[in-house]
């Protein structure tokens, strides 16, 4: 499983010779710091203003080191991603029913499809929820998202046409994806 950092919205380092500049961090260092803060803030659920600022700073530094320029055209984007951090209160369930376990997103650019999956604790009962979506790429890194179908436990229903979103994938490697 790979890591997704969503900013409303990991660890691979090669063994090569690098000329380092004092004060500049490597991809691996930035990714490690970002993951540490994501864990510390419980995916962003308990992030202070200072922590949010630091995560944004790390996010922007890592975006500048993106090794994959055409993120939606890369096969690296396809697969299951585990959400580690988001600023979206609705995704986190802030003020509502708590999420239990991982929050997952599957991307399949060959079929232009996506699926989000989570388990929510409703008064002690753990209920799986998922939503499927169609992707409409607009650029090599940006796609519109049209939600198609929601499922809460055994009950499914079609999403209203107005339920839309977007993904702007600003960083992608073999183990981490940053999305705005």
Content of β-strand: 35-45%
Helix content: 10-25%
Ranges where pLDDT stays below 50 over 5 or more residues in a row are 8-20
**How do the helices and strands follow one another from N- to C-terminus?**
EHHEHEEEEEEE
Average predicted confidence as pLDDT: 90
> Strand pairing plus helix content: what structural class?
alpha+beta
Rg of Cα set: 17 Å
Q: Got a strand count? A: 9
Strand arrangement within the widest β-sheet reads: 1-2-3-4-5-6-8-9
Number of helices: 3
Coarse shape: globular
Question: Could you provide a short overview of the structure?
Answer:
The chain is of the alpha+beta class.
Lay out the secondary structure.
Blueprint: E1 2-6, H1 27-40, H2 49-63, E2 79-85, H3 89-92, E3 99-108, E4 113-122, E5 125-137, E6 142-152, E7 155-158, E8 164-172, E9 176-179
Parallel strand pairs: 1-2, 1-9
Antiparallel strand pairs: 2-3, 3-4, 4-5, 5-6, 6-7, 6-8, 8-9
Structure description:
With 180 residues, the protein is of the alpha+beta class. It is 18% helix and 41% strand. It has 3 helices and 9 strands, in the order βααβαβββββββ. It has an 8-stranded mixed barrel. Strand 6 and strand 7 (155-158) form a beta hairpin. It is globular and about 50 Å long.
Give descriptors for this structure.
eight-stranded mixed beta barrel, 180 residues, globular, alpha+beta
